[in-house]
Design goal:
With 296 residues, the protein is of the alpha/beta class. It has 10 helices and 12 strands. Bound molecules: NADP nicotinamide-adenine-dinucleotide phosphate (NAP). It is an enzyme of class 1 (oxidoreductase).
Length: 296
């Protein structure tokens, strides 16, 4: 990869805008590839705002050549629809960085990237889209990536920017730890309540039982996680502001498709493969799937 790699970003929503702004501030403005055309992107943070010059392109046929580095920040439910962008932007020399939740980004994207290297990441910061399509950054941006040779290209692209990048030799465990937190957050969808609901004793009990089920599956998949992870996650929700939401709850309330499969279904699927009973998932997952897709 050259000293000045060509960089594109697919999916300039909450997380995509934050990363595009971080790149732009250090002089590495990416090509912006979206679904909805916008003249520019705006990221608002505690000290002000960053305007990323656009336009946001909406037609993959306008891409003239493959790019060196491609960040993917569409929801996992939108990957199939963004296949045209991935086909136009990727070849076998491209490094793709998935800015998405879950533990399956590589298998999900591999189908569409013309043999490019796909690296997953754990996205540690919350960001939310406002009514005017600007994005509100809720914490300092931070990513964790696997300590693979190609990850250095991503760390280099974000070096000196407001987004910190950590490379981990045990990415699998970190990704599953985040997945467990996301899985428990799925309970908010079914209650239609924010983090405050975890102060209830009955929800605490349910969340702990569900997280122990998730932990057994995570360990069977190779994650090294301490016995106290369920308590630590529930404790985190209990200490959070009562009105803290989660993107899957926001999607449910806006009647958008839910990332239920990569956040909750995955535990049930891998549990079945490993012969681990998942009685709580067996109730939660169909309810989340039906909430996402209907019918009814
Ligand atoms: N938001 C958070 O705080 C947060 C934190 C950690 C992890 N994550 C994860 O990060 C990922 C992205 O989430 P997000 O919250 O940033 O989602 P988002 O705000 O909904 O952004 C998705 C973006 O993708 C665009 N898009 C949709 N379909 C497309 C297509 N076919 N081609 C190109 N662009 C397309 C959307 O365009 P439109 O403008 O047309 O909708 C939007 O700009 C998810 O996996 C999420 O779970 C999010």
């Amino acid at each position: 990869m050259s000293d000045r790699p060509t960089i594109a970003l697919i999916g300039p929503g909450a997380i995509g805008t934050a990363i595009a702004a971080a790149l732009h501030e250090v002089g590495r403005t990416p090509l912006l590839c979206g679904r909805t055309a916008h003249p520019q992107l705006i990221l608002r943070h505690d000290e002000g705002e960053v305007v990323v010059p656009g336009p946001v392109l909406s037609d993959p046929r306008t891409v003239a050549h493959p790019y060196d580095l491609v960040f993917v920040a569409v929801k996992t439910t939108q990957v199939t629809d963004s296949a045209g962008w991935l086909a136009a932007l990727c070849n076998k020399n491209t490094v793709v960085c998935a800015l998405q939740n879950g533990v399956e980004q590589q298998s999900l994207l591999a189908l569409y990237v013309n043999g490019a290297t796909v690296l997953p990441s754990v996205v540690w910061f919350p960001a939310q889209r406002e009514q005017d399509a600007s994005v509100r950054l809720r914490a300092t941006p931070r990513l964790t990536l696997p300590d693979a040779p190609q990850a250095q290209a991503i760390a280099d692209a974000l070096s000196g920017s407001r987004c910190a990048v950590e490379l981990s030799s045990d990415f699998l465990s970190i990704a599953w730890r985040k997945l467990l937190q996301n899985a428990a957050a799925g309970l908010m969808v079914l209650a239609n309540r924010r983090a405050g609901m975890f102060s209830r004793a009955d929800i605490t009990q349910l969340a702990l039982a569900y997280l122990r089920e998730c932990l057994a599956v995570a360990r069977a998949q190779g994650a090294v996680l301490h016995d106290n992870v369920p308590e630590a996650i529930v404790d985190g929700f209990q200490r959070a502001p009562a009105d803290l939401g989660t993107s899957i709850l926001a999607d449910r309330q806006a009647n958008r498709p839910l990332e239920w499969d990569i956040r909750n279904g995955v535990v049930q699927r891998y549990g079945r493969l490993q012969g681990i009973p998942t009685p709580i998932s067996d109730i939660l997952v169909p309810l989340l799937a039906a909430g996402s897709e209907g019918p009814g």
